[in-house]
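Sample A.
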Amino acid sequence: MHPSFDKAVLALAISLSLAVPSLLPLTANAAEPQATAAGAEQSVTTPGGRATFLLPAGWTTRVQGNAVIIMPPEADGSRTAIVDTPAATADEAVAEAWKVLGLTPKLLVATDAAPRDGWEQRRFYDYDIPANAKRVVNSAAYRKDKHWTVIAMDVDQAIAEKRGSQFAKINQRFQPAGYTRETFAGRTAHKLDAARLQQVSDFIEQMRKDFEVPGVAIGIVQDGKVVLSRGYGMRDLGKPDPVDGDTRFMIASNTKALTTLMLAKLVDAGKLDWNARARDVYPAFKLGDTATSDQVLVKHLICACTGVPRQDYEWLFEGEKQTPQSVMATLGTMQPTSGFGELFQYSNPMAAAAGFIGGQVAHPGMELGAGYDKAMQSLVFDPLGMRNTTFDYDRAQTGNYAAPHGYDIAHKVQVMDMGLNDTIKASRPAGAAWSTVNDLLRYVQMEIDHGVLPGGQRYIGEAALLQRREPQIATGVDRHYAMALGVDNSDGVTVIDHGGDMGGFHSNMMWWPAQKVGAVILTNADEGVYLRGPFKRRLMELMFDGNPQAQAAAAATVKANREGFDAFVKLLQWPADATALDALAPRYRNAALGELAVTRKDGRAWFDVGAFSSEVATMPQPDGSLAFMTIDPVAIGFLFVRADSDGARRLVVRDGQHEYVFDEVK
């Protein structure tokens, strides 16, 4: 959604960056094996025997000296080299890996991560690459004993996003040769007693302070009881009102799981079939062309398995003008970029369509948004007792509610404008709900109890509820996406979860069904995204006597984030270059994203797209081109590349798989 949220999409645990356009040819030794195709997933050992990893199905490999080069199915020059080396340092090891690929990318920043997965040292590298290259280039060095293994990645940006789940598999099973992964299989979960809960609280408060998150709320249930529900810090920076278990936060994409619960209620009532064609249920449904539309079943709307890529800029830029009807119409212009059931690709518009279609089944003929809202209230919120959960932004932002926060360009936490967050209203089944820890614990407890409410009353049939957890598409090794629920068996026990991300709000809800434990975390700052993984890991450590990793991981991330931010700011000219600002047109327009107005005052400039406005800095690119970067907390990270030619002024903005050209309005 927000551009700064996309750093984690590639799951190679290395931040997104863009690569140099020119590639030198590979020159493999003629005596070594040539490229070999992988018909199915297979475990591969590096040439030096130092590491193993999982090669995705359909990928090819080529051995070149002490390196194995892996390539995705697309013949587009995308390559990742995995190199064993006895180099003395991480930096020397990485330099050796780039020689294998024939590249010398310009280093932006190198940061250290905590030891993990058998590696005693891990160091990650980001590079200053021109945006127009449209490449992802990064590297990482891993040490075991005195030897290094390096991953150096040079991949087309669209392929990197499309195949993010496969890169996740490579990363997830990248480990020293002979290493045995920790597993919690067969272990009995400890009771989360007062001492363990105090450790959780202390850890959350330490992370909150370290990551400069104004407010956090968490809740935990075990064996049918709420064992912890409390807040940490403030709802609004500079104000005394504390966070508690009833403080309302935007829960963003956690809304999706509640949406599929509404659909499951309709399935349970015999009004809907997961395997019905979407067009048969709602004849106006359209995704791309007719052939594509005909393939989509109800369950496909929410499984992230249809091959429809992220395409959020239409509603981010035009959110103030969109309606549920226009969201559905825009979906008709989208087309999958991978086959059905082939790759995990997350789509907010598809999830929105699922909710609106469910609303029409429940309340035929009602306006799409109103039908959805009514269905959610009567089928989900009311029966579960979720009295503080709402899509009404005016109601949500009264009384006990949290304000969103983010860093400004000086790395100072500021209250964030709600403009970007308002854009999700028209697509609300995908992420517009506000809720509280206590409300979400009621939902989580129902999931743990397979559809039975605390008083013993059955809320929903078990079959309809649990169908939502059936894996639909792989997101990693022993990790799958179901119907807006992640199902993770990679640690030997099953945990089901989903996260949510909007401007200044990051959250997660999770539960371990067999152990009858569930948890919720809600945060009110962009840095809150980094609390979720360590929180989940710390709970597992305390439940299953796991190796202590969470605290070291969080501490290393705090340091790496600051180093990365400082390096990013050094790329910017702020105040922006005056000559570049003077050359901007007053107005630009893109057919899909609408108008962009340029306003100026006191030598500064703002880009206003209607839904949000931000001051811009200039960002010279290594290839000599120039970009403008939005820098206000509400929209930090949108990159507009100047593309003037033949007297026409243009700006280009891109997401992972799409490019939008703004032309000057004359």
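Sample B, a different protein:
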Amino acid sequence: MAPTALLSVSDKRGVVPLAEALHRLHGYQLLSSGGTAKVLEEAGLPVTRVADHTGAPEILGGRVKTLHPRIHGGILARRGDSAHEADLREQKIDPIDVVVVNLYPFRETVATPDVSWDTAIENIDIGGPTMVRSAAKNHAHVAVLTSPEQYDRFLEALSGSAGGVDANVRRQLALEAFAHTAAYDVAISRWMQSRPELQPDVEAAAPAEALPWLEALPLRQTLRYGENPHQKAAWFSSPMGWGGAKQLQGKELSTNNLLDLEAALATVREFGYGSSGLHPAEQAAAVVVKHTNPCGVAVGDGVAIALTRALDGDRISAFGGIVAMNSVVDGLAAKELTSLFLECVVAPGYSPEAREILAAKGNLRLIELAPEAIDAAPKDHVRSILGGVLVQDLDDQPIDPSAWTVASQRQPTASEHADLRFAWQLVRHVRSNAILVARDGQSLGVGAGQMNRVGSARLALEAAGEQAVGAVLASDGFFPFDDTVRLAASHGIKAVIHPGGSLRDADSIKACDELGLAMVLTGRRHFLH
């Protein structure tokens, strides 16, 4: 009896060459349904329709077609088991040896922000996951394929073995199949949980209870290596967020690239991003990141001006850095990007002129990330620890100056208040202890990751140099002593902003009054580890 392959796929990439190889090179009978059967028939391949195979028509608008004993009996039967083989003979069921199934595009469907409940529900596959799980369970006898990326590997294994596909190959395919259906179910659960139709009128669930999607994210890419060449690494992602990014040119992304891109994107989004964020009151913004810390941030009347100002914030640190911009990159900005060595650039889009200019930098990784992909992504911050993960809300709540208080005798001027807001938007994206010096919509100095706040302040003020005169200083945490205030004043800083809440706040306030500085307390800290 000739072996049988069942093919029923939503993603039809490569299915015709696969079916041709199975039938013409390896003698498989082809069993298929719906759109897949039509594609194979149009390619001139002999196909038995599932309805003809089962003797039962598709019903309920196609909701029920493969849920039948002649399908699942053929998949689940153990070869060599006398009872199973007797059942097959009695029911006139032929074994199915290869199952090629991928599922309705649920994740792609719900990635559309305005998708309706009914449309999403209709794109939940039932028969597909059932066949995949059946074949994966019976991998001792059945090979299951769930992705076009597996087809060449499977055909190579099939061609290299006279007795069928090796058991180890079938085991690996089964593992990938269970991961495929697990990720699918998690995507459905996560989407339903996010919908207002299911929002309970009770206190919100804890992050750990609210994130079943963490249990299974599909593999997007095996990376060249991790943070260092001796570390293996892989990127798992849904189609949302960075999973929806398009790499337009350049070398393959690395682990460090992705971490820096995330830091740069989080910072530039403070100023709106693309069509979903910018409005007339907001300016173009650019961020330069090095080792996950912003080293230059600026706004300007146009993306090229913002980029130049951001790079001018610290051109030495910018070398080999990552750049994020919140609006379409034009030709002027592209020319600025070619003025020094950079690893990656991310933006909502690039003009044709910019693409032509940047093409000369063949190794530069250009990433296009649509605002819609960001909007659709889960708003959770996830980090791993040994044997587990930590989950918290993103620290991306809007800045609310109305909640601030002025602690000093001197009120900040209007320009100082604008600078304080700008600095406070940025300092939460700098690793603790974090200090940031800024003026006129431009970062001038950044102190990051030091073990004491004075050390961070010294780094930021020394980087700012003479530009610190008349600038403002922001701190992600409170001042436990007055030493940071006095150091800032000695460099010409005119106003400071920090959360407040230290038992010795009065010492820092007194120093501000003595030295003529304005001090604003936000009541909210922004530690970043």
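Observation for Sample B: Residues 444 and 467 are 7 Å apart (CA to CA).
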